[in-house]
Amino acid sequence: MESVSLSRILIVEDDLGVREALALALGLEGYAVLTATSAAEGLRQVSAQPDLILLDVLLPGSDGFSFLRELRERSSVPVNFRIRARRRPLGASRSSWTRRPTAAPGGS
């Protein structure tokens, strides 16, 4: 199997604790991390050409699915949905997904 090299990861997450925990963990692993707190900000960050986007589904002013539809008009960057779910969300087969923590590690 071919190895894929990722260097830039965009985190689109409105929860400060989750966003900072992900950015810290990925930064410690050597990734260049970009962050956005809304779908609009995340779409602007796409110009930095991230190799992967970690995307929260519930965002202020929009949602992750709308973000993905607009993103696909201009980019094919892989997207990993971060959701609160007990099972795979409907339509998630086109993108990967992971369960989103309800609080950052060490948080309340």
Give an account of the 3D structure.
- There is one protein chain.
- With 108 residues, the chain is an alpha/beta fold.
- The chain contains three helices and seven strands.
- The protein has helices at residues 16-28, 39-45, 64-72, and strands at residues 8-12, 32-36, 52-56, 58-59, 62-63, 79-83, 96-99.
- It has a five-stranded parallel β-sheet. A two-stranded antiparallel ribbon has the order 4-5.
- Helix 2 (39-45) packs parallel to helix 3 (64-72).
- It is globular, with a radius of gyration of 13 Å.
- Mean pLDDT is 81; it is low at 85-94.
Biggest sheet statistics: 5 strands, parallel
User: Overall mean pLDDT score?
Assistant: 81
Rg (CA only): 13 Å
Spell the H/E element sequence. Answer: EHEHEEEHEE
Low-confidence stretches: 85-94
Defining key terms:
3 helices, 26% strand, alpha/beta, two-stranded antiparallel ribbon, 108 residues
